[in-house]
Ubiquinol oxidase (Lactuca sativa), 347 residues
Amino acid sequence: MMSRGATTVVRSVMGQMGPRLFSTAAGNASITGVMRANAGLIGSEKAVVTWWITSSPIGARHASTMTLGEKVQQPDQKEEATGSGGAAAGGQKGKEVVSYWGVQPPKVTKEDGSEWKWHCFRPWETYQADLSIDLKKHHTPTTFLDKLAYWTVKSLRFPTDVFFQKRYGCRAMMLETVAAVPGMVGGMLLHCKSLRRFEPSGGWIKALLEEAENERMHLMTFMEVSKPRWYERALVFTVQGVFFNAYFLAYLASPKLAHRIVGYLEEEAIHSYTEFLKELDKGTIENVKAPAIAIDYWRLPADSTLRDVVMVVRADEAHHRDVNHFASDIHYQGLELKDSPAPIGYH
């Protein structure tokens, strides 16, 4: 037990340090010994929850302040929160996501200084499609696995033709929901393999995930052009569920077969987009202005049209065709993908 003299010294020290310990948290408010919640910080709908803990007979404890929003907001930050022209005065669009953890999203602008409005991709992920690629290249199936892959893809084309007929906008939308699956599955399995074997992937993880992301951006583009109907959305759930699991098992069993299937799928995609272009040239499908997301993603001219978008998407599919046939050939030669540098950025 403490002596009376020691107790007196401790109380004296705490009496002097208590106001200093809590002055920054309390400001001009008094120490109350309770938890208080203040709403309406700097004119916004952020709440500040503050714990006030005073000295007790057993000594001082920690004081903690948690801000459900921003801890401190400087005058210049106030202007950013409200947005230019009072954009944040009302509505969901003007609100900013804030976090107690201090993670602030970077402010990205275009080359001309204007605000970058796309969150699904950034300026350094954009590119100009190589339209000079040979669209007529075809891998002639010779082995049993090649023929199996080829006729599997051909058999899938028939129900697609029957269902979508000449509605190529919706056909493209449906195609991209499937085309974005193989790259993600292959990249995921290579990632796990790299972790299990403590070995590099030769860049193929990144290459396949890059392919999947590119296909997903095709989907984001065509969603602006063609609005899917409810039964088409339902079909996506079914087809994606079946295809994901089937491709997952196929890749586990034989990567050479899986990549060959994707190579032939991309050949069919080239054919579909070629037919799409024919309908646009005939006037059957209106050649509308290119979506803004496509203009920024492919660095297209501002006056680009839907035809220009289909051209660059078809070129992407041709590059994916080459990558997957190349990956299959690597396995056919008795090697692994890591033995050959991946064509990162090939699309």
User: Anything to note?
Assistant: The two ends are 76 Å apart (CA to CA). The domain at 144-339 is CATH 1.20.1260.140 (Ferritin). The first helix runs from residue 4 to 26.
